[in-house]
Amino acid sequence: MSFTKIPIEEYHRLQGILEEYKTRLYEYNKLVSTYGYYLKPLHIVYKKTSNGTVKYVYYGRYWYKIVYAGKRNKTSIVKWIYIGREKPLPKLPDPPHHPLEGIVLRIDSTGVYMKKS
């Protein structure tokens, strides 16, 4: 399926949905933090291609474990250890459903384009 140009208002509506989803992810992380695991709310990757740099944004996709590593002066030091894409413990509650799963946006100087995978 190819990309379809969408109105800027629709893009802003999608951004609002993502902001609400991030809020639900933060609330979910408070719930599962007692287990020491976190679902990273936002992960950004930049990839250089022959056509320039592409920015990939992932919401609620990767799991991490946070390990306390001591203190430096009055600041606690923690290490974020990547666990993977699957829920690390079966007893953890399921994370919130991603409302825009499967939607890909492409933004360039000519507009905003959407594709459903």
How many distinct helices? Answer: 1
Number of strands: 8
Largest sheet: 3 strands, antiparallel
Give the integer mean of the pLDDT values. 91
Distance between the termini: 7 Å
Structural class: alpha+beta
Question: Helical percent range?
Answer: 10-25%
Shape: globular
Reading the helices and strands in chain order gives EHEEEEEEE
What is the radius of gyration? 17 Å
User: How many structural domains in the coordinates?
Assistant: 1
Q: Beta-sheet strand percentage?
A: over 45%
Which segments are poorly predicted (pLDDT under 50) over 5 or more consecutive residues? none
Strand numbers in spatial order across the main sheet: 1-8-7
Describe the model.
Helix content is 21%, strand content 46%. It contains 1 helix and 8 strands; from the N terminus they run E-H-E-E-E-E-E-E-E. The protein has one domain. Strands 1-8-7 form a 3-stranded antiparallel sheet. It has 117 residues and is of the alpha+beta class.
Short description:
The protein is of the alpha+beta class. The chain has one helix spanning 8-32; strands at 4-6, 37-39, 42-49, 52-59, 63-72, 75-84, 103-108, 111-116.
